[in-house]
Amino acid sequence: MLYLQDGQNLFDPATSYAGHWGVLETLAELGAAHPMLVVGVPNLGVGRLKEYSPFDDAIRGVGEGVGYLNWLRTVVKPLVDESCATLTEREHTGVGGSSMGGLFAIYAVLGGAASFGAAVVMSPALWYADGAVFRWLRRQPGPVGQIHLDVGLLEGEDTVFDARRMHDLLLDRGWTLGTSLHYDEDAEGDHDEASWARRLRERWVRIVGMLAPPR
Predict the structure, then answer these.
(1) pTM higher than 0.85 for the full model?
(2) Would you say residue 20 has pLDDT above 60?
């Protein structure tokens, strides 16, 4: 089970505001051999930045990510578990997103460790709140959960630098490359839905494996 943020952009181009991820197409192509339930959670629109940030920002205001994570854990996940044939344990439950959704996913896999055992972190907005996530992560126990972290090399020097900095910090905090941490740099990737859609499809088998039950 994977809970992805920005649900408007995942399945249907008619609901997307910036292109879509083609998740239905990926499921049709790869889901039979490598099944996984995907739940798309829509964002608040104009309130999206604060919604996904657990950190207060001097310009954008108080972050609402802590409350959002609590709602995702205590309201949305129980509803899904009651309605679908899910494996409810944390090791079979992941959270993911891109940009601000990616920032939230890093926070959620640690802050919601009782519920989420893996995070799919695409092009995370690590700059938000003056890089508060780096200071926060240094104070957290680790490693907690598996993390897939990626970035597109066309996103700009600052974004790539921040992703590499996060990669190094996670290693320093105890994650192990190739097992608990998976890291990719996409030479053709930009900060857009098309790049995230392609990377989700290309890394689908890996992501499913992060949440798959033991054989």
Answers:
(1) yes
(2) yes
